[in-house]
Amino acid sequence: MIKRICGFQMPTPVKSTKNTMYVKFFSDSSVEKQGFTATFQKGK
């Protein structure tokens, strides 16, 4: 695991040294919101 993120604040960027990244999303189902978005940038 690279980083565990929870709460309502925008997290700092997460960087991977590999060419893949797996994201696992859990919800406690107590609040319905828009979810999350993710973007990626190709490294140099």
Automatic annotation (TrEMBL):
**Superkingdom, according to UniProt?**
Eukaryota
Q: Tell me which stretches of the chain form a coiled coil.
A: none
**Every CUB domain range:** 1-43
Name-wise, this protein is: CUB domain-containing protein
Name the Pfam families on file.
CUB (PF00431)
| Entry keywords, A to Z | Disulfide bond
